[in-house]
Amino acid sequence: MLFQVGCELDYAAAVPSTLILNVHAQRGPTQTILSEQFSVEPRVKLTEFSVDDLTGNRFVRLETGAHKKLAIRYAAEVDCDFQTYRARAVEATPVAELVPSTIPYLFPSRYCQSDRLSRLAWDLFGSIENPHTKVVAVADWIHENVEYLRGSTNSMTSAFDTVTQRTGVCRDFSHLAIALCRALNIPARYFSGYAYELDPPDFHACFECFIGGSWVVLDATRLAHLNGLVRIGTGRDAADAAVASIFGKVSCTRMAVTCALGPGQTFKPIDHAQLNQRGVTLAQTS
Fold first, then answer.
1. Which helix (H) or strand (E) holds 6?
2. Residue 275 belongs to what H/E stretch?
3. H or E segment at 32?
4. What is d(CA 160, CA 90) in angstroms, rounded to the nearest whole number?
5. How far is C-alpha 51 from the geometric centre of its chain's CA atoms?
6. What is the pTM of this model?
7. Mean pLDDT score across all residues of the chain
8. Of 62, 77, 78, 106, which one's alpha carbon is 20 to 30 angstroms from that of 164?
């Protein structure tokens, strides 16, 4: 499936500062970038880099210097593939048999305190044997028990805060799902990306669980099509895959995000009702 994605980010800098952005679509076996443009006006010093092969995140570090305003533009045409699997055929993988690259996604992290949510996770979902059914139940429970409310949380809100306050946005829904899955001994990680037909358009956060030998994507908000996602960032939580990390005094004055179908494409969404029969795996870095 061919998508045209992009973003426009305007920043105001009060003092010379540094920004690290994570807005580039990832490259991977099943996510191919056909064309790509990135620009900053006025021109500033910038460096593109990746931290490791495990996440595949593509960062840009830029220095504002003496400039008070920056206009950042990114656009890409990305060919994405996805696969589905029979949900009932998936079997649980014991921790002793997990591939090493998934182990870090079992541990508690800054925003996903799985150690503090263990009792809740096992009380709610411990009796479910099929791993696909279990992670779908986690996503369903969050959707039904946490209100999606813009402006109700901030960059410090954690999974424990969300389950207590019962409000949040996509980032908070994902952090809570990740924490609950890890508490159930299922590796889980944060997913940020562009989402087709997301309303209103924005960067979107989902979560992935490692079951049946693959990373499976789910969205507890139910706002995104699981087969309409273009991966940007992967990590233990949002700290690893933030759209912008600011070092200095900078504020975002405007943000516009787009995700549209490429020419000649026809989109058929995989809806929530179908998740009982099949799961969805996306472009994977590992």
1. strand 2-13
2. none
3. strand 31-41
4. 29
5. 17
6. 0.95
7. 94
8. 106
Structure tokens at 248: 């200095």
Could you tell me the domains of the chain? 2-80 (2.60.40.2250), 83-241+266-281 (3.10.620.30)
Tell me the two tokens of residue 149. 């409310």
What lies within 8 Å, CB to CB, of 105 at 6+ separation is: 182, 187, 188, 189, 210, 236
Angle between helices 118-125 and 170-183 (to 10 degrees): 80
| Residues linked to residue 260 through DSSP beta bridges, in sequence order | 4
* pLDDT higher than 70, residue 286: no
Between the alpha carbon of residue 150 and those of residues 28, 141, 154, 167, 200, the distances in Å are 32, 19, 10, 9, 11
Count CB neighbours of 105 within 10 A: 26
SS3 content of the chain, % helix, strand, coil (to 5): 25, 35, 40
Whether the CB-CB separation of 46 and 266 falls below 8 Å is answered with: no
| Residue 31 predicted with pLDDT over 90 | yes
Over range 161-187, report the average pLDDT.
97
Crossing angle, helix 131-145 and helix 118-125, to 10 degrees? 110
